[in-house]
Design brief:
Length: 213
């Protein structure tokens, strides 16, 4: 449902006016760790994703944009944040009604590299910039990827959010990138962090020919 809303929003609001809408890909997938076997009793490489379907009646406009593979996290947001907020605004949703509005759906899960290779429009290009912003799972996703192999070894700029990460998760993410020569200072890569994000600017990016993407 979140992917469908995002597709509709892009088509309606045109947030990237210089990019034709047919070039914008909204992919309804989860990013998973490495090549893991499917869990018993579940469809291969699918995981259950939970979203909030209730809207209106005092709920904020982003109520249907809440989602997680962890049902408990969605339930906590619904009961501890949305329920009291909508009551304060004159809404009449009960806690039970909001809980029953949580939808479970099976979502395909791929590694990040698999997702980039899955789309013909992306396979034809060398990825230039990658931004990872996943509200707390950023360091885990970065730590789980193989940055030494295509297409993740071809980036000119990598940005990932660290402000929600635990120290151990942040350390593992930096170590995963540190295993690949092109992400090291010896290869000319520059790395710095502000309070929210980590930035990797690849040393070879300045010497590569400019290509529009």
């Amino acid at each position: 449902m979140i992917a469908r809303e995002l597709s509709q929003s892009i088509a309606t609001l045109n947030p990237l006016p210089r990019v034709p809408s047919k070039r914008v890909i909204v992919s309804n997938v989860g990013i998973r760790d490495d090549e893991l076997p499917p869990e018993p009793g579940r469809r291969p490489f699918h995981r259950t994703f939970y979203t909030m379907t209730a809207h209106g009646g005092g709920l904020p406009g982003w109520s249907t944009q809440i989602g997680s593979f962890n049902r408990e996290q969605v339930t906590n947001v619904v009961l501890k944040i949305l329920h009291p907020q909508q009551l304060a605004r004159g809404g009449n949703w009960t806690a039970q009604q909001l809980s029953e509005s949580i939808l479970a759906d099976a979502v395909l899960s791929r590694t990040l590299a698999q997702e980039l290779r899955a789309h013909a429009a992306l396979r034809a290009l060398r990825p230039a910039v990658l931004l990872v912003d996943t509200e707390g799972l950023d360091c885990r996703i970065v730590a789980a990827q193989d940055w030494c192999r295509p297409p993740l070894d071809e980036l000119a700029l990598l940005v990932w959010e660290h402000k929600h990460c635990k120290v151990a998760e942040y350390t593992r993410a930096r170590a995963a990138l540190g295993r690949c020569p092109q992400y090291s200072s010896a290869a000319g890569a520059s790395t710095f962090a502000d309070r929210a994000n980590v930035f990797y600017l690849m040393g070879g990016a300045r010497s590569r020919p400019h290509t529009r993407r």
